[in-house]
Design goal:
Number of domains: 3
CATH architecture of the largest domain: Sandwich
Mean pLDDT: 84
Radius of gyration: 27 Å
Number of helices: 11
Low-confidence stretches: 1-11, 23-37, 517-554
CATH class of the largest domain: Mainly Beta
Shape: globular
Number of strands: 27
Structural class: alpha+beta
Strand content: 25-35%
């Protein structure tokens, strides 16, 4: 078909769509006034219908559809998070035109959303989904979410998930015009076939008193001040309170809406990392949710970890990308492309797309990655987004250090507090593992000629439980790594107790580990004894560990 014919077809289709849509709207108003008893609700429904026909026309006029068909399977899946969709943005809400631009950009690039049950099965490793699949989620159960997003979802025949605050749901049949959807509107959304509904808690969004001075904090992550008794909530009272709220939300969805919720979204994305007075009790919060739900969603923050979610039988915590209202469609597409699973082998002198700083900073030029510290930190840790699914591999690099106390290449990195590192420091080369912020020395080689500054080749290999580390012409050191460090991505770490270190990474190559790599481990043995340092040995590896950088302040 010629370009002229295609354009003419689009325009004729658009004209038909616009005329049909206009003719239907008055009928929709009359029908919904009778159905809902609310002129306001009927007007909203008619407005949604007009938007639907407008989007249909927009698509017909020239928004080229993506190629159809599933040519490959996704190795990991992203989850997008939105709140309200309206033209009066409040800093978290998305303008309608921007939301439409983003979704149509993803569609043109071949992305499409999956249903919640498809996502759950894929993330648990029970099935696969197509490459470029994603889960589209909206928090709070807001009216502007449904009426702002649903017309476009309808036009595209796409699905989404809504996490509702059950305490805000009105069960008045005639309710309309509220900030939150009524029960009747939620049921309409479910009947459309475009929306799955899950739990966002009952009272969990309330900010309550957390000390005698009147400081307020998040419901789920803080102990509450008992003003009547002039004391703080006990551990047991805390656990009982949050469990009761989780149970109530689940029960409301079941009893009043007929829904068996399988997922929970943490309000504010906070499952303890934002606690004001109860630090270290993330396990209590997470396990309380795990007892009732199959999946728990939170919004990740820059540098927290990999953008996409990888399949695992034990998968529970699910990362979400909080889409910013200022992002264009191209911006969102760039974020997703950076986080996509990266295939091995990977080799380049130019920086690979997706390098992210957990702390410190990273910049790229045509010649190198430039890693430096932040304004108040004494080190930097970067990782390659999209490499989190790697398991057995050999990573070789060339690094140029300046004013560095140590420089390390990291493997099997799952987040900024868990990885294996080959670290070069003054007079020493060390192979270490860091698990949840605790550093353990696996092997080391001492040589007065070693220095982290200057031009060096730095390599690390992980293969099963075996790990190997080498710098320049030094014979590899090796040892065994823990059972739970079974997969993870590539990273680099720079540390200096004084000054501002900088490392340029001018070349990186990663390839799958071979059987020969395991055999090589048994042929070299500078040191085989594991020494637990727990981050206190004074070695570059221990002092340059995750420390207080592991968890950002919130």
């Amino acid at each position: 078909m010629t370009v002229v014919a295609t354009t003419l077809r689009y325009r004729i289709t658009a004209l038909i769509v616009i005329l049909a849509g206009s003719g239907l709207c008055m009928g929709i108003v009359r029908e919904n006034v009778l159905k809902s008893g609310s002129l306001h609700a009927a007007g909203r429904t008619a407005q949604s219908a007009l938007k639907y026909w407008r989007y249909r026309a927009w698509i017909a006029l020239g928004d080229q559809p993506a190629a159809t068909g599933c040519t490959s399977q996704a190795e990991s899946v992203p989850v997008l998070l939105y709140h309200g969709i309206n033209d009066s943005p409040d800093g978290a809400s998305m303008p309608e035109y921007r939301f439409a631009e983003q979704m149509l950009t993803l569609r043109r690039a071949g992305y499409s959303p999956v249903r919640f049950d498809e996502f759950e099965a894929s993330i648990k490793g029970r099935r696969t989904v197509c490459d470029k699949a994603f889960l589209l989620t909206f928090d709070d159960g807001r009216s502007d979410t449904f009426y702002g997003a649903d017309p476009l979802l309808n036009a595209l025949q796409w699905r989404a998930v809504m996490f509702v605050i059950t305490n805000e749901v009105s069960f008045d049949r005639r309710a309309g015009g509220s900030f939150y959807l009524s029960a009747a509107e939620i049921q309409d959304a479910i009947r459309s076939g475009r929306w799955d509904v899950q739990s966002h808690g009952h009272h969990d969004h309330e900010l309550l008193q957390t000390d005698a001075a009147g400081t307020t904090g998040h419901f789920l992550s803080n102990k509450l001040w008992q003003a009547d008794e002039h004391r703080m909530e006990t551990d047991e009272e805390f656990s009982q309170r949050i469990r009761a709220d989780l149970v109530t939300a689940r029960q409301v969805l079941k009893d009043r809406l007929g829904l068996a919720a399988r997922a929970f979204a943490f309000p504010f994305g906070d499952f303890g990392q934002g606690s004001l007075n109860f630090p270290g009790h993330q396990t209590t919060i997470v396990e309380s949710v795990r007892a009732l739900y199959d999946l728990a969603f939170y919004q990740t923050w820059p540098g927290e970890g990999f953008t996409f979610n990888m399949p695992s039988k034990e998968a529970f915590l699910v990362r979400r990308i909080a889409v910013r209202p200022e992002w264009t469609g191209a911006d969102l597409l760039s974020v997703l492309e950076r986080g996509r699973a990266k295939a091995l082998p990977l080799s380049s002198q130019a920086p690979a797309q997706g390098w992210t700083a957990a702390w410190g900073s990273v910049a790229s030029s045509r010649e190198a990655l430039h890693v430096t510290t932040g304004p108040v930190k004494s080190g930097s840790l970067i990782f390659l987004d999209g490499s989190g699914g790697w398991q057995d591999y050999e990573a070789d690099s060339r690094v140029v250090g300046r004013q560095a106390g140590s420089v390390g290449i990291l493997a099997r990195l799952s987040d900024a507090s868990t990885y294996v590192s080959c670290t070069l420091g003054p007079n020493i080369l060390q192979l270490v593992e860091v698990r949840h912020g605790v550093t353990s020395l696996i092997a080391q080689y001492v040589d007065a000629t070693l220095s982290p500054n200057g031009d060096h080749r730095l390599d690390i290999t992980v293969n099963g439980h075996d790990a190997s580390c080498r710098a320049d012409a030094v014979a590899p050191i090796h040892g065994q790594i823990s059972d739970d460090l079974i997969r993870g991505g590539l990273g680099f770490q720079v540390w200096a107790p004084d000054g501002a270190p900088q490392v340029d990474i001018t070349w990186t190559a990663v390839q799958p580990a071979t059987r020969g790599a395991k055999a090589a481990f048994s042929e070299s043995a500078p040191l085989l004894t594991r020494v637990s340092s727990s981050g206190k040995s004074g070695s570059p590896a221990a002092e340059g560990g995750c420390g207080d950088h592991c968890q950002p302040s919130n």
